[in-house]
Amino acid sequence: MTETETIAYDVVVLGAGPVGENVADRTRAAGLSTAVVESELVGGECSYWACIPSKALLRPVIARADARRVPGLRQSVQGPLDAEAVLAHRNYYTSDWHDDGAALWLDSIGADLHRGHGRLTGPRTVTVTASDGGRKVLTARHAVAVCTGTDAVLPDLPGLAEVKPWTSRNATSAQAVPGRLVVVGGGVVATEMATAWQALGSQVTVLVRGKGLLNRMEPFAGELVAEALTEAGADVRTGTSVESVARENGTVVVVTDQGDRIEADEILFATGRRPKTGDIGLDTIGLEPGSWLPVDDSLRVPGSDWLYAVGDVNHRALLTHQGKYQARIAGAAIAARASGVPLLESDPWGAHAATADHHAVPQVVFTDPEAAAVGLSLAEAEQAGYRVRAVDVEMSSASGAGLYADGYRGRARMVVDLNEEILRGVTFVGPGVGELIHSATIAVAGQVPIARLWHAVPSFPTISEVWLRLLEAYRDN
Ligand SMILES: Cc1cc2nc3c(=O)[nH]c(=O)nc-3n(C[C@H](O)[C@H](O)[C@H](O)COP(=O)(O)OP(=O)(O)OC[C@H]3O[C@@H](n4cnc5c(N)ncnc54)[C@H](O)[C@@H]3O)c2cc1C
């Protein structure tokens, strides 16, 4: 290899997270030669520091909580979690932070992996700098797909670097349970990690600037999760922000704007994400380094006929499943354009347009209780100008709920579009609802008329009978 070897491909994918992997899968399936550039681990944030390790930590927590709600079983699961075994289980799920298996999979689909930091160095051109300083120039006949994801944002607090705060990476990969953990933030990462570490043995304090947790969901989601976290022993303080933080003799000392002083062993900042576009050469093609990359529904950056931005980096929905959905569409669009086939944005399979991003994004928060939602909340639907009505029922009204968990607590809401008589959004909060949300996703994405939903009969006695209760509540009020 010479220092400036140039290799031509049909497609260059920058970033091998779940999204980059799926773009490559689709372009390879279409017969396009594809290079994938990765600076860390094939599999991305999701596999090693986000979805997978966090859910591996949370699964035993939720299973134990569920078991404790079943008479006859409760007595057998009163002890603490075996934290060492839980962490080992998490390590197994991240392959101990090795990506050999993922790299082999890329090889099996016939994509070329180039390890190193990739930067655009002009239109259709990506220069890869390997850790040994070696460089390669990759050119793309048809498309460059930027799939570089996001990283954690830390607040601008003096001396924060010396405190060595946790970000989501530490919170998902720590090899020991901190005695006391302060979690700053009230979103999904904060609530999930507070749930996990409190159950694993930490004394958790959650500091939330706003009025409550999970403020992108229906308000009752955050209320129920905060209530449960408090019952689990965590100290949840809303309307509180960090004024200063320091590490004194190894102990983290936090002073809040309420004048409280809190001591802890570690502090996690789960205070937002920013796009990893600061150092990918956007300036060489007239774009702003560090910016999110807005795209059209084929995931192409407006004004370009070769640049795509897929997954977290386009800021449409920071979720793996939604990014993988976009990747399937981007791959299909790249292949169609490469072969000169016009994009049929209206084709019945919707193969070339990521329309679900606009109205039917599902999300599960793996707290105890779980919170799951799809589409718009009531506030979002009203803001979007829809004439809507919220229909609320207690989850316990479903016959299966009581059997699932003694004293089942949770709530469901559907947001009905009164003009179209379809659902704009659905939220479920309660044990086990993560597996229920796909029924709502089908109703929202499929714009199923309420009149037809009556004919989707929930099985007895399951939690999904909550659908019947929601329809009855809509009819009777
Ligand atoms: C703690 C946590 C838990 C989460 N849990 C869930 C969950 O349960 N379900 C869910 O759907 N979503 C979850 N998410 C969100 C999910 O992780 C992201 O939506 C997903 O990882 C986005 O995939 P991506 O491929 O776009 O980006 P990433 O997974 O971030 O991958 C981007 C890849 O690009 C590489 N890269 C970046 N810049 C360069 C460069 N210049 N050169 C070469 N390579 C580069 C990176 O090294 C990385 O491998 C969670 C996030 C966090 C933080």
Automatic annotation (TrEMBL):
All residue ranges annotated as the Pyridine nucleotide-disulphide oxidoreductase dimerisation domain in the record: 361-467
PANTHER family found in the cross-reference section: DIHYDROLIPOYL DEHYDROGENASE, MITOCHONDRIAL (PTHR22912:SF151), DISULFIDE OXIDOREDUCTASE (PTHR22912)
Protein name: NAD(P)/FAD-dependent oxidoreductase
Keyword Acetylation: no
Family membership: Belongs to the class-I pyridine nucleotide-disulfide oxidoreductase family.
Domain of life, source organism: Bacteria
Entry keyword set: FAD, Flavoprotein, NAD
Needed co-factor(s): FAD
Domain FAD/NAD(P)-binding: 9-321
Residue intervals passing through the bilayer: none
Pfam families cross-referenced by the UniProt entry: Pyr_redox_2 (PF07992), Pyr_redox_dim (PF02852)
Lineage of producing organism: Bacteria, Bacillati, Actinomycetota, Actinomycetes, Kitasatosporales
Record keyword Flavoprotein present: yes
